[in-house]
Amino acid sequence: MAHGDTTDAAAARLAELHNHFREYQATGPQQGHATTVSAPAPMRLDILDHITASVREVAEHTLHANPDAGPFPERVQDAYAWMHSNLAAADEADQLRADAIEYRQYLEHCLEQRDNAAVRKEVRQLACPKCGCWGLMWSLEMGRVICSNSECVDRDGFSTTLSLARFAHARAVTRQKVRQARAT
Ligand SMILES: [Zn+2]
Asked: How far apart are CA 34 and CA 183, in angstroms?
């Protein structure tokens, strides 16, 4: 199970987001029962948008790589397992992209849950794809990954930064190399 750990992590986060939204719909803002003075938590419509966009991206990539993919699963959190099973025979590039999408979405789910610490921890677990050092940091302000190596800069002297998409792609490439090394 090459995808096991990431699939579980991303699926678990997506399920949490989905549950949050459904519970709110079930209980509602409780109008007419003002037994408490505290205002109800606002419904976070952005969570619904986030879930929809995430699932759509997974479905689009899967159907692009495998037009014969089976029907989309009933539970949103099963989207990743569905993608991987339908891409089992797809070429390396499509599988790599699937890994990168899933991992980037995992990080995005963490951010949607305002779990900045989880993203910071993930970012430290990959060497900088440009200089190879272990000094990557997550900047919430910039919404980007930054290399802390003072030598790792562009022509104008600015630190190397990576979007989450590029970071996730670099991680997927690293994992693919590990898998290929194991397979030979
Ligand atoms: Zn670097």
From this structure: 63
Query: Which DSSP string corresponds to 60-118?
Result: HHHHHH-TT--PPPSSGGGHHHHHHHHTTTS-HHHHHHHHHHHHHHHHHHHHHTT-HHH
Structural domain spans, the chain: 1-26+44-114, 116-184
Q: How far is the CA of 142 from the centre of ligand 1 (A)?
A: 17
Do 116 and 124 contact (CB within 8 A), yes or no?
no
| Segment-wise mean pLDDT, segments of 10 residues, the chain, 184 residues | 63 91 64 53 82 96 95 94 95 96 97 95 96 96 96 94 97 90 84
The phi and psi torsions of 175 (rounded to 5 degrees) equal -70, -35
- Tell me how far the alpha carbon of residue 172 lies from the centroid of ligand 1, in angstroms: 17
pTM of the model: 0.85
Centre of ligand 1 from the C-alpha of residue 154, in Å: 10
Spatial distance between the Cα atoms of 85 and 108, rounded to a whole number of angstroms: 23
pLDDT for 38: 58
Q: Residue 138 forms beta bridges with which residues?
A: 145
